[in-house]
Amino acid sequence: MFEFIPPAVYLLAGALLIGLVHGAAGSAGLLALAVAATREPWVAVAYVGLFGLGSILGMAAAIQQSPVKAFTISFDHDAYDEAAIATEMAVATATWP
Questions:
Q1: In this model, does residue 2 exceed pLDDT 60?
Q2: Cα 22 from chain centroid (whole Å)
Q3: Contacts for 38 with CB less than 8 Å, ≥ 6 apart
Q4: Residue 95 has what pLDDT?
Q5: What is the CA radius of gyration of the chain?
Q6: Cα(20)–Cα(17) distance, rounded to whole angstroms?
Q7: Which residue pairs, CB below 8 angstroms and at least 24 apart, start in 78-84?
Q8: 36-89 pLDDT, tens per residue?
């Protein structure tokens, strides 16, 4: 009736569950601060979501064996352009040739 499920699947599922609970607990304070700072709940949720995505990508990059492929968006207006900072970071982290 039940097929054999490898122990690694249980370990992965347990780690994922613990990570989700831990992340939700840690994000509650960040969400409360973001709502207080922005006064717009949807902006706060978007910020926390992007923060979480960045955390996930950072952890994935830490265990990846090859260089991380990254990108940035460049704007014509100097106040919004992060191309120079992104290039400096890419060179420092060896993700840019």
A1: no
A2: 15
A3: 44, 47
A4: 66
A5: 19
A6: 5
A7: none
A8: 888 888 888 888 888 878 777 777 777 777 766 777 778 888 877 888 888 888
C-alpha to C-alpha distance for 54 and 48, rounded to whole angstroms: 10
Above 70 in pLDDT, residue 1? no
- How many C-beta atoms surround the C-beta of residue 44 within 10 A? 19
Closest C-alpha to 28, from 7, 10, 1, 51: 51
Written as one string, the DSSP assignment of 25-74 is HHHHHHHHHHHHHHS-HHHHHHHHHHHHHHHHHHHHHHH-SSPPP-----
Burial letters 66-75, b for 16+ CB under 10 A, else e: eeeeeeeeee
Mean pLDDT of all residues in 10-34? 77
Using left for φ > 0, alpha for ψ between -120 and 50, and beta otherwise, residue 93 falls in alpha
CB atoms within 10 A of CB 34: 19
Of 55, 60, 87, the residue nearest 71 (C-alpha): 87
Predicted pLDDT at 14: 76
